[in-house]
Amino acid sequence: MSLSTEEFVVIGSSDPIVAVLGGSITLPCHVSPAMSVENMELRWFRSKFSEAVFIYQNQQEQREELLAQYTGRTSLVKDFLTRGEAAVRIHDVQAFDNGLYTCFFRKGSFYEEAGLELKVAGVGSAPQVHITGPEEDGVRVVCMASGWFPKPQVQWRAVSGEKFLTFSETQAQDAEGLFTIEATLVVRHSSSGNVTCSVLNPILGQEKEVAIFIPEPFFPRSSPWKLAFMVILTVLMFLLLGAAFYIMREHTAKHREIQEWEKLQRDKEENQLTKEEALKARGNAGQGSW
């Protein structure tokens, strides 16, 4: 299918564009077939047409409809407009710049658009690690880092390189959308020695880490009295179970004896009653013969 001289297709980047916090980034689009876009209306916007990031119309920038967050932070790269290539540059990239964009090109009554994805990433502070206190069976260590975007990945490792898989994690975002993360680990073996907390940006692949040494005296020691108490408690439990079993058995035997005695009494009473009835019947028969 061929396009008329007024028609074109707008093409954006097929891959996500990565931008670093505080830096600058361009969102490029071009038309096919190649033609000048100097006299076209060019617009970059977010999820809605009215949420404009940059507007170029009548060969000049239009600022009236721009989102307040982008005022003074966007500009048009004009070097290749005659070749059908245009790009908007965003300066001082912020966390809220992260997401989807649409570039819109209009010539007369004909228009086309294309989508772009911007991934914002930022490396924050180095993690701060400190011991917060003993636990029942170990030492509690906390790692905290702030100013990261997007949410970073936290990992605890032993001096041997082995990863700790069980730890708690909390996160929060500040007014600028940056993440503060706190990860709490309970180290249960003094042999672990040094433990390392690493924080990784999943988009940039950049990592910051800090190690801390936990002295052996910080670990709670097992008391011999505690061990003796556990042994005594176990023995008492077995004794109680044995006593309960003995009492139950004695109760069952006693109940059986009572049942047997009651049965003998009933049999005895029935035999006595049978004898009395037989004697009575015999007496009545003798009176009849007189």
Automatic annotation (TrEMBL):
SUPFAM superfamilies, sorted: Immunoglobulin
InterPro entries: BTN3A2-like_Ig-C, Ig-like_dom, Ig-like_dom_sf, Ig-like_fold, Ig_sub, Ig_V-set, IgSF_BTN/MOG
Keyword Cell wall biogenesis/degradation: no
One Gene Ontology term of the molecular function aspect: signaling receptor binding
Cited CDD domains: IgV_MOG_like
Transmembrane parts of this sequence: 227-248
UniProt KW keywords: Immunoglobulin domain, Membrane, Signal, Transmembrane, Transmembrane helix
One CC-aspect GO term: external side of plasma membrane
Pfam families linked to this entry: C2-set_3, V-set
UniProt domain Ig-like: residue ranges: 22-103, 127-211
Stored SMART domains: IG, IGv
Main location as per UniProt: membrane
Gene Ontology terms describing biological process: regulation of cytokine production; T cell receptor signaling pathway
Protein name (record): Butyrophilin-like protein 1
Protein species of origin: Leptonychotes weddellii (Weddell seal)
Gene name of the record: LOC102741983
